[in-house]
Amino acid sequence: MSAIRVGLVDDQQLVRAGFRLVIDSQPDLEVVLEAGDGAQAVQALTAGTAQASVLGPVDVVLMDVRMPNLDGLAATEKIVAAGTPEHPAPRIIVLTTFDIDEYVLAAIRAGASGFLLKDTPPEDMLDAIRTVHRGDAVIAPSSTRRLLEHLVTALPAEQQTAAAGADALATLTDREREVLVLMARGRSNTEIGEDLFVAEATVKTHVGRILAKLGARDRVQAVVVAYETGLVVPGA
């Protein structure tokens, strides 16, 4: 199998060098792009540009938030919006710290497939890249779940009203709602299966139906709906 092609977007060259060293040490991962700001990333990763055509597909991008010229949030939105069935956008993992909480949730809404704290251990970062490449989202670690809860409670109350999300939530079966609650609590498919006494394959089927009914790109966006609609209460 070909290696997972990774892009690094961060304005600190030393940070990119450290990430590259860790990622390129893995036989199944390869860094194929580095960019120092969001504008460079958009130019390189937007389908149809000359640079993107030469570069070829990038599977997963690690995207910093605070960068000059164009920040990671705007870059994420532009890159995801430019994806097409023929040239799908790369999956994006936002790199962040607790002091920029509201921006991270905005990135998730823009289409990012997850986020990592910048002090995440290298092995967790590598696992996150592989997880996102498989089509899942990076929300499982307890620290990430706490961060997501922190993000939702930090939003103004009027931003938490989601009538469309509530309507979609009403289409879920009781079992699908149970699975969504466990997803929001950071449980993996294996753990959900153990909690509900069902096979992991059954859980995957439920997750797929939940994403389809909620119109969610991945697990992160489904979990955001769970919090916004009040199905899951932060801290509960």
UniProtKB/TrEMBL annotation:
The keyword Cytoplasm does not apply. One of its GO terms (biological process) is phosphorelay signal transduction system. The modification 4-aspartylphosphate is found at D64. Keywords: DNA-binding, Phosphoprotein, Transcription, Transcription regulation. Residues 5-133 form the Response regulatory domain. This is DNA-binding response regulator. The keyword Metal-binding does not apply. GO terms for molecular function: DNA binding. Residues 165-230 form the HTH luxR-type domain. PROSITE patterns: HTH_LUXR_1 (PS00622), HTH_LUXR_2 (PS50043), RESPONSE_REGULATORY (PS50110).
